[in-house]
Write a structure and sequence with these properties.
The chain has 445 residues and is of the alpha/beta class. The chain has eight helices and 22 strands. α1 crosses α8.
Length: 445
């Protein structure tokens, strides 16, 4: 809770000594941590206090006195107000270095381990990469119009007033302002709560969450927008199961994962618009190939893929091994993973529904001595799984992580309790211009 509602308006000088996990500069003022939006490591800045808290304060830059040599001009004109990106003012090389530093510090501080080898960072195109996400919608009476976008950086209660987004897929990024105009012209202008977007290789889908039934005029307007801009339009009147297409009648969302080995065929995965898919299509291709190289699947191997989702790793693995089993907690994803296997002519992959945050050691797949294991858990990590997996005969584990702290904790478990060596680890820049750290690690007996 805030210590005081009184925040001095007079700017003061601060020296930035670190970057926080969310991309803000960190200073110490009178022995107290100060998180500064818009500041970079090593900079001398004038700041204005935003909020006081008991153990830290928050501020924003009003002037950069001594800039970092890595400071660049943000491409997006909405950068200062929108919370979608936090590092556009930092050059690409320094962004990667910062993420590598976060991963290394977490390994040392939390897991008490260090990789024998640091993998070169996996990077890709830093702009127009995001194919999956959610846009907030807010009808602002004081402005007399609708705002569509991400939350404000300074005040997450409000939607940033943006017209376009430089990191979103080209099918949607330049059209954010047009979406606001579309909703502003609807009779149900106050009923649209959010817009989910999800892109396959050929189709970008928009899912309009509406809190009351839409009239014929509004349905016609949404359909016309989809037709004009080549977008599939879905409606969501209730929970996730209520999502259904408006136009066209049967849209198809799918993406291909190309094999980097001519001996093995590509795979194609179909999905529904609210399904989990990696947000960065290009980086997903590279990540899968990277994981295959680390896992080193052999024709006689039997492999377990945990948190398998749609089969993003499972199906490429299946092309190379004797058997692979994928386990996932969401029934719909498991169903579509099995369908994707059949669609690709893969008959050595099977899938199971299981809550991997509950004890599953009685399950047949958990008792099987798999040769190799791949896991791609959510932010919470996999410490509960690691209470009983991997089997002592498992020789190799590849861990794909979206949160460095949980990876570091789990690395400590694999090394200290299961006898593995952290052979290698590195970052993957799945979310350029953000402080999000995606990483991969290889563990060997």
């Amino acid at each position: 809770m805030s210590r005081s509602n009184s925040v001095p308006a007079t700017p003061f000088e601060a020296t930035i000594t670190d970057l926080s996990h969310d991309g803000r500069g960190v200073a110490r003022v009178d022995g107290k941590a100060l998180f500064v939006s818009g500041a970079l490591l090593g900079e001398q800045v004038m700041v204005r206090l935003r909020k006081r808290h008991r153990h830290f304060d928050e501020a924003e830059v009003v002037e950069v006195i001594t800039p970092s040599p890595h400071r660049v001009e943000p491409r997006c004109r909405h950068f200062a107000e929108c919370s979608g990106c936090s590092l556009q003012h930092l050059d690409a090389e320094a962004q990667i270095a910062a993420k590598q530093r976060v991963l290394a510090e977490n390994f040392e501080r939390i897991g008490k381990v260090a990789p024998q080898q640091w993998l070169p960072p996996l990077t890709g195109e830093p702009w127009a990469y995001r194919r999956k996400g959610r846009l907030s919608v807010r009808h602002v009476l004081k402005k007399g119009r609708v705002l569509v976008g991400f939350r404000e950086e300074a005040n997450p209660r409000f939607v940033a007033d943006i017209q376009q987004c430089e990191v979103l897929h080209p099918a949607i990024g330049p059209k954010v302002g047009l979406l606001a105009e579309l909703i502003n012209g609807l009779d149900a202008v106050d009923a649209i709560a959010q817009i989910e977007f999800a892109g396959g290789d050929d189709t970008m889908a928009l899912v309009f969450r509406h809190l009351q039934p839409l009239g014929e005029g509004d349905l016609a307007a949404l359909t016309a927008f989809g037709q004009q801009h080549g977008l599939a339009i879905y409606l969501q009147p209730g929970n996730n199961s209520s999502v259904h297409p408006l136009w066209p009648a049967q849209p198809r969302l799918a993406f291909r994962i190309a094999s980097d080995d001519a001996r093995f065929a590509d795979v194609e995965l179909e999905f529904e618009p609210l399904d989990f898919v990696q947000v960065n299509a290009n980086m997903n291709q590279r990540m899968v190939a990277h994981a295959m190289a680390l896992l080193d699947p052999q024709p006689t191997d039997r492999v377990l893929d945990l948190f398998c989702g749609l089969g993003n790793f499972t199906l490429p693995i299946a092309r190379r091994v004797a058997e692979v089993v994928g386990v996932e907690g969401e029934h719909g994803l498991v169903q579509r993973a099995a369908q994707n296997a059949a669609r690709n002519g893969i008959d050595n992959a099977t899938f199971h529904v299981a809550n991997l945050f509950e004890d599953q050691r009685a399950s047949d797949w958990a008792r099987t001595p798999w040769d190799k294991v791949l896991l791609d858990p959510p932010r919470a990590g996999a410490d509960q799984l690691l209470a009983y997996l991997p089997h002592r005969k498992t020789r190799r584990v590849v861990y794909v992580s979206c949160h460095p702290a949980s990876l570091a904790r789990d690395a400590g478990i694999l090394v200290n309790q299961h006898g593995f060596t952290l052979a290698s680890a590195g970052v993957m820049d799945m979310f350029p211009h953000t402080a999000h750290v995606e990483s991969i690690a290889l563990f060997e007996r």
